Amino acid sequence: MTEMHKQALDAEIASLLAHGMEQVTVKDFYGRYDAAGFRFDHSCTIRAYGRYLTGPRAGQLSPDMNLYPVHKETGLSAFHFQLPRAEYEKVKALRNSIFAVNHGYIMGV
Questions:
Q1: Is the terminal CB of the chain with fewer CB neighbours within 10 Å at N or C?
Q2: pLDDT digits (tens, 9 = 90+) for 48-95
Q3: Domain of 95, in residue numbers
Q4: Measured distance CA(9)–CA(17) in Å, rounded
Q5: Average pLDDT for residues 17-41, to the nearest whole number?
Q6: Within 13 Å, how many C-alpha atoms sit on residue 96's CB side?
Q7: Distance CA 92, CA 95 (A)
Q8: Do 65 and 46 touch, CB atoms closer than 8 A?
Q9: Phi and psi for 49 in degrees, rounded to 5?
Q10: What is the domain count for the chain?
């Protein structure tokens, strides 16, 4: 991991924690989504650097691992318009409350 990557990762973790998010283990991250009725389609996983465009962190990087949640019962994306609203709310609650770090990237939805 480069020094730039480590600094960006540390800054992002500090920011997420300051905003009230909970850092969990990778196993717990997957477990909570599984308990909510979702799995991840890893063929759609993207690892990249996000860049803040506005606000106090404008220009800073965020090493992100974006995951694609799929509802286990219906096979629909967590964001599909036909997914029942109650199921979407489960993903929304998790997305806004937990994160994990996997191989130097912030796991998120």
A1: N
A2: 999 999 999 999 999 999 999 999 999 999 999 999 999 999 999 999
A3: 3-108
A4: 12
A5: 97
A6: 6
A7: 5
A8: yes
A9: -100, 125
A10: 1
